[in-house]
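Shipment paperwork, digital attachment
Item: protein structure file
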Amino acid sequence: MADDSDFLPGDGPSSGISVTLSAGTLRAIRDRVGKRGVSAYLEQAAQRQIERDNLDELIADFDEANGPADPEAVAAKRARLIAPASDAGEAA
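Attachment content:
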């Protein structure tokens, strides 16, 4: 079998492991996806967490090379992104 490092998250054959979750977390997952959907749910959650970790690392690398982003510039760009559709024409 190929080394695990040959696969990107979400690729490759399935491999079983043992995972310990709190009873409340497991119940919440089963309530959402049923008993047979737990593995797929955890796979998707792990992939999302890997994406977030990778983004955090990219941001840290960027901040180290360029300094932190200007909070006022970030707030202005965020306001443009979440502006109601009716305001979009005015901003352009």
